[in-house]
Specification:
mainly alpha, 15 helices, 73% helix
């Protein structure tokens, strides 16, 4: 495990880039808006309403969801001791989606918060099932865990497709599987603020998650309650996945490519890299959303499509780079565990 100290000007550069992209996000859209006029107090009522009803909620949601999903992927990689997993490839997102679908079918009059809680419960159960399978079968080669996750995702997804077909909810299920910020408006996005609490908890326990990534035996020898910290990580990832699914849908590859790129630059210590991972995740989604809104302007395509294309390309580059890179001591430990 290698760790490179993060200098203050790295934070500054990334923070400035995040601010610039946030301003661009606020300015882009079919409705005309002048940020200078709003700042100077010369904006029209329509511009003010557009900013606070649509643009600002959308940008806030992009930043928080990007940061939280990147951190969710980072924590899951620590729990699974595998670089190539994230909620969307391990059955977590599909389990949350199944829970949300069941809540929609059997509790149609329940509010969004209740549906989210049911989705979280299903996400936790799905993650525990995968971890139990891994413990019984052994991790083996580094690609075994992602393959098991894909198999579990396929099974859970098939159950969801069957239920959606039975109750004529195919379009609803499809809308959850594709990330889209166009429906984010004031009054329909506030659940995303729960993710901020989860990010704070993740930072407070980051050092413990780093120890968990070394394996159960090492963590226990260091005096860490492995099961408790693992369960906490599962709960955090499940909450993040369910909240993101309810508010915006699925954003693929985000939880894989961002943590891996930051890990290659700054190392594997979660507390050291977590703030950079969070800001980089937000930047990645901001750039993708700006492209999604600009490529066929004034219309837009779902941001999940853009993230999928860019993320897939970056993932292939990561696979190529890591395949040529000599195996580090941390990877040796991963293979042994």
């Amino acid at each position: 495990m290698h760790d490179k100290p993060i200098k203050w000007h790295h934070y500054l550069v990334i923070a400035i880039l995040l601010i610039i992209l946030s301003i661009i996000s606020l300015a882009i859209g079919t409705g005309e808006i002048s940020l200078l006029a709003i700042i100077s107090g010369r904006a029209t009522l329509n511009e003010i309403n557009l900013l606070f009803v649509s643009r600002l909620p959308r940008t806030i949601t992009i930043i928080i969801s990007g940061a939280s999903l990147a951190i969710g992927g980072l924590i899951m990689q620590a729990l699974m001791q595998n670089r190539f997993v994230e909620p969307a490839t391990t059955g977590v997102t599909e389990s949350a989606s199944l829970g949300l679908l069941i809540a929609t079918i059997f509790f149609p009059n329940s509010d969004l918060l209740m549906k989210m809680i049911i989705a979280i419960i299903f996400a936790i159960v799905g993650t525990l099932i995968l971890m139990n399978i891994i413990q019984h079968l052994g991790q083996g080669q580094i690609f075994v865990v992602p393959l098991l996750g894909i198999i579990l995702s396929g099974i859970v997804g098939a159950i969801g497709d069957y239920l959606a077909w039975q109750f004529n909810l195919q379009m609803t299920l499809q809308s959850w599987s594709l990330g889209d910020f166009s429906g984010v408006l004031r009054g329909r996005y506030e659940l995303i603020y729960f993710s901020i609490i989860l990010l704070v908890v993740a930072y407070l326990f980051a050092e413990r998650f780093t120890i968990v990534s070394l394996g159960k035996d090492i963590a226990t020898n260091l005096g860490l309650n492995y099961q408790t910290i693992s369960l906490l990580g599962i709960i955090i990832v499940s909450f993040i996945s369910a909240i993101s699914l309810v508010v915006v849908g699925t954003l693929p590859f985000l939880g894989i490519v961002v943590p891996n790129i930051i890990s290659l630059i700054y190392g594997d210590n979660l507390k050291n890299s977590l703030p950079i991972v969070a800001m980089s995740g937000a930047i990645f989604v901001l750039v993708s959303d700006i492209i999604a809104r600009s490529i066929i302007y004034p219309a837009e395509i779902p941001v999940g499509v853009v993230i999928g294309v860019i993320g897939a390309g970056l993932f292939l580059l990561l696979l190529y780079y890591l395949n040529k890179k000599p195996v580090s001591s941390g990877d040796d430990a991963l293979e042994k565990n």
